[in-house]
Amino acid sequence: MNRREFLHALAIAGAAGFPLAPRTAFAADDLYDVPRFGNASLLHMTDVHGQLLPMRYREPAVNIGVGAAAGKPPHLVGREFLAYYAMQAGSREAYAFTSLDFEQLAARYGRMGGFAHLATLVKRLKASRPGALLLDGGDTWQGSATSLWTRGQDMIDAQKLLGVDVMTGHWEFTYGEQRVKQVVERDFKGQVDFLAQNVFTADFGDPVFDAYAIREVNGVKVGIVGQAFPYTPIANPRYLVADWTFGIREEELQKRVDEVRAKGAAAVVLLSHNGMDVDLKLAGRVTGIDVILGGHTHDGVPRPVPVKNAAGTTLVTNAGSNGKFLGVLDMDVRDGRLREARYRLLPVFADLLPADAAMAAHIASARAPYEPKLAEKLAVTQSLLYRRGNFTGSADQVILDALMQEKDAEIALSPGFRFGTSILAGEAVTMETVMDWCAITYPATTVTPITGETLKAILEDVCDNLFNPDPYYQQGGDMVRVGGLTYTCAPRETMGKRIDDMRLGGKPIEAGKTYKVAGWASISEDARGEPIWDVVSRYLRARKTIAPPRVNAPRVV
Predict the structure, then answer these.
(1) Does 47 have pLDDT greater than 50?
(2) Strand partners, 220
(3) Distance separating alpha carbons of residues 106 and 352, to the nearest angstrom
């Protein structure tokens, strides 16, 4: 970008509302003035999901843990969360980390995240921590209209401008093998290390990416091992990564950690996209990892969870999603090992952090070609629309209602994706909002005749993915959202016994009867049908006003 283009983009950014004027002091020094500690620092973000602009994201009101995870982080919500972390109700922190009084606090504290505001915070922290590295846990290139339409390029350019040093991946792989390799070998070359110790070629078992990087931070050798989402070919279409295999691969991970140690790394960090429950189990089985900087399950966890293993203790973290948080890990490394670590998970409040001018210019320039389409007002909502929660969300219900109405189906199924921004009552549902909920590379809608027996099997399978007491059998999403059909769910039962009392219109579902079921995001390569965003946008345009949806939540035992 030359000077004229930069100034033009800056003007667009100003018109879009970015506060570009410099401030003499931060509005919340007590929040962002984190005292430096130790001699090596890492900054960590994860699961941004394509959100370049500040947004709202309501945290879950229901997050059930099973087995050893019951009642423990990350399965704490609401008042239990506030009590555990000694946070005050109604505070900025309560707004950032919980769903309590979300609408009232959203009006008070505003939007969160946004790369222009995140860039300001990163620069501030790096200025006080020379040599600090910025790590990205993945799920960055997907989750918005512009990321989909540019095949992640808007986010890739933003990552480079932000100063990302190392990343791993998950939804990035849904752009296909060729696209990911193109970015790693071209855009990231010499600047960003894309690490994934658990991805190999399907034919000869060769590593696809570098497993680790050893970076020197103020004279301290820090080993960073990458762990991509292990279940990519199961949770997402296999044909998009047909030549690659994934997995947790504990044995290979242990070898890589030992190798990094043998090469002189005094501190070892796992940049993980496993999901927090998986990381907690892994931390007790793989030795030599000092800290796991985790992602995938979108859990904002203020304090690390210490996990003991055969050789010591590993600290496990998870840094939330959508650009709402930035993790700060300060390490005191002496005599060849980590002596003490201090960690803060900082909420990114857009009203407290002025927008970085260069990043704001990039965002405005990247969005400019798409602004008219993004800004289309489809309808006005009369209630809060949100997605996150173990069983359902009001935004998910809008998608289900659209599928049943537009496809003339008696039942609808919608995946329990954890990305998707929230909007308040009285606000317009724009095309951008719908794309925030639906922007994936396999968006085809389907209408399928399914028997009652198969419906139960589908619900049981997804439920087991969410509530299996062994974290290694969990894939990190929420329960499939269901329209039309009601049912009872017993999360702590065993496979095949969690789903009961399935009904349609008050009548029991018959195992041998066939029902017309609409859905989307099929992982089958043969799936054909109009994109889900066309279905939802058509539904919204026809209504203009969206009354509070009757959320079809199961009865939970």
Answers:
(1) yes
(2) 217
(3) 14
146's CB contacts (< 8 A; 6+ apart) are 50, 52, 154, 366, 367, 370, 374
pTM (predicted TM-score): 0.94
The answer to whether 257 and 289 have CB atoms below 8 angstroms apart is yes
| Residue type at position 469 | P
pLDDT of residue 29: 65
Q: How far is CA 147 from CA 155, 169, 218, 377, in A?
A: 6, 15, 35, 20
C-alpha 172/C-alpha 169 separation (Å) is 6
Strand-pair partners of 385 = 423
* Paired strand residues for 286: none
From the CB of residue 189, how many other CB atoms can be counted at a distance below 10 Å?
9
* DSSP, res 280: H
> Hunting for tokens 């997907």 — which residue is that?
142
- The model's pLDDT over 519-530, given as tens digits with 9 standing for 90+, comes to 999 999 998 999
Strands (E) in 473-528, as ranges, are 478-483, 485-489, 499-504, 507-508, 514-520
Mean pLDDT of 418-424: 97
With vertex at residue 273, the alpha carbon angle to CA 167 and CA 343, rounded to the nearest 5 degrees, is 80
Give how far Cα 468 sits from Cα of 473, 478, 520, Å: 6, 12, 25
> What phi, psi does 291 have (nearest 5°)?
-140, 140
Nearest Cα neighbor of 140 from 186, 188, 94, 92 is 188
Q: Report the percentage of the chain scoring pLDDT > 70.
A: 95
- Kindly report, residue by residue over 121-164, the tens digit of the pLDDT: 999 999 999 999 999 999 999 999 999 999 999 999 999 999 99
Q: How far is it, in rounded angstroms, from Cα 241 to Cα 232?
A: 8
User: Which alpha helices (H) appear in 92-231, and where do they start and end?
Assistant: 92-97, 102-109, 115-128, 145-149, 153-162, 177-182
Q: Are 325 and 344 in contact (CB under 8 A)?
A: no
Please answer whether residues 54 and 114 qualify as being in contact, where contact means their C-beta atoms are separated by less than 8 angstroms: yes
Q: How far is CA 400 from the centre of its chain?
A: 22
Q: Which two tokens stand for residue 545?
A: 């006003």
29-46 mean pLDDT: 94
pLDDT of residue 527: 87
CB neighbourhood size of 188 (10 A): 17
Sign for the CA dihedral angle at 470, 473, 478, 482 comes to: negative
The full length of the chain comes to 557
pLDDT band at 15 (very low <50, low <70, confident <90, very high): very low
169 phi and psi, to 5 degrees? -150, 170
The β-bridge partners of 428 are 380
